[in-house]
Structures are given as C-alpha cells and as structure tokens.
Amino acid sequence: MSNILVCDDDAEIVEAIEIYLKQEGYNIFKAYDGIKALEIIQNEDIHLIIMDVMMPKLDGIRATLKIRENSSVPIIMLSAKSEDTDKILGLNIGADDYISKPFNPLELIARVKSNLRRYTSLGSINQSNKSVYKVGDLVIDDETKSVTVDGEKVKLTPIEFNILLLLVKNAGIVFSIDQIYEKIWNEDAIGADNTVAVHIRHIREKIEINPKEPKYLKVVWGVGYKVEKQD
After folding, report:
1. Percent of the chain with pLDDT over 70
2. N or C: which end of the chain has fewer CB within 10 A?
3. How many CA atoms within 13 Å lie on the side-chain side of 174?
4. Each residue of 82-135: pLDDT tens digit?
5. Around 91, how many Cα atoms within 13 Å sit in the side-chain half-sphere?
6. What pLDDT does residue 127 have?
7. pLDDT on residue 229
8. Is the dihedral of CA 157, 28, 128, 71 positive or negative?
9. What is the pLDDT of residue 128?
10. Are residues 96 and 75 in contact, defined by beta-carbon separation less than 8 angstroms?
11. Which string of b and e fits 120-149 if b means at least 16 CB within 10 Å?
12. Domains and their CATH numbers in the chain
C-alpha cells in the first residue's frame, strides 16, 4: 500500500482528497502547513506528496525546495492559480506535476496513479531488470536507477530520470516534445511544451558542464530533443 501525504491549509479539501484516495486503497497522511509536512516526511515512508502552494507558516514552494534537498519522492502541486507562470514555477522548484483548483477527482486520481507508477518503475519501491546504458562518460544504470557523468553521481527526479533514460536508450534519435510527453506521462500531449522544456533544462543543469553548450542533451530546432551519440 502506498503512503500519500496530503498538505493543504483548507481542511475540507484535505478531507475530500483523503476520501477519494482511500477509496483507491491508499494510506493517507494529512498536514495543514509546510512545517507539519516536513515533520511527517522525516518520520514516515511517504511515496507521493500532494502539496498546496499557498499555506501558513511554510508555503508549498519553500516546503518543496526543502524536500528536494534529500528526496526525489513525486510531488503534485495543488493551487488555485492556473496561469502558466505558476505552473512553471512549481516545476522549476522540483514538483513533478501540477493540478489547478477546482480539480476533477478523476483527474487527481489518474495523476496520482501515473506518478506512483513512475516512482515504482525507478526502483524506489520495486527493482527492475538490470540494464546499463552508456553515452560517452554519461552512464545510466536502469537497475540501481543511478546516473553518473565522468564518474560523478548525478541526482535526478523520477521524471528527469525517465526522460534521460528514454533519450539515452535511443541515442541519436530525435524525439518531439509531444512524443516525450506521451511516453513519459502516458497521456495526450496537450500543452506539453513548457512542462517538457522545464524538465529538459533541469537535466542539462545536472549532467552538462556548460548547459548552454550541451555535450549530451541536444535540441534540434523545430523538431525536438536527442542525446548525441559519442565516440
């Protein structure tokens, strides 16, 4: 059974989400501010977090930044704000997904299941078959879910890992933004441009010496992205 932390200062929203997710068999932990959320994460084995942006004491943005210092657990941001800038901010500070209030319960459940599947496939709950992929000095171990560049370990979030794994396994092949989104998120690529671009930028910042002149993760203008084959 997966443990899900729901953090929102609106008790009614927390209770509603708890009802929906308990019906799906999940175990729910509840918090009403970022400080309490961090306490729960330190003491419990949490597999996914639903985090509101605007909260007292410690808001969702700062709480997510603290969580990302030590954990790659999937985080779904929940906010009344629906503008692209707010969505991008959430993704920029480490969130994996974003849902705007008011939300459709079926959409929330679908996103929870999708993010948990990716987290599980990364070996955070279960291990997968051993497979090592290498492009130059970039090495991905699909069993241990580790990434190294020039022998130095690189820490990626689950979505970042899956995107990089897809491109490394298919080195030299260009994937469009829509193709990347549909393969990683397992849903139609509607408004996927900003979401994919943010994650690509994060990957570059972690694996490239100079992200502005990338050695591995290249953009093919007007087409998409690829990992460049290396000699």
Report:
1. 91
2. C
3. 9
4. 666 767 777 888 888 888 888 899 999 999 998 888 776 655 444 444 578 889
5. 23
6. 41
7. 85
8. positive
9. 41
10. yes
11. bbbbbeeeeeeeebebeebbbbbeebbbeb
12. 3-121 (3.40.50.2300), 132-227 (1.10.10.10)
Residues 78/85, Cβ–Cβ less than 8 Å? no
Best CA proximity match to 67, nearest among 99, 102, 101, 31? 31
> How far apart, in whole angstroms, are the C-alpha atoms of residue 206 and residue 187?
26
Total residues belonging to the chain: 231
Distance between CA 80 and CA 60 in Å, rounded? Answer: 13
pLDDT value for 193: 72
CA distance 99 to 93: 15
Name beta bridge partners: 153. Answer: 148
How many angstroms separate the most distant Cα atoms in the chain?
57
Per-residue DSSP letter, 229: P
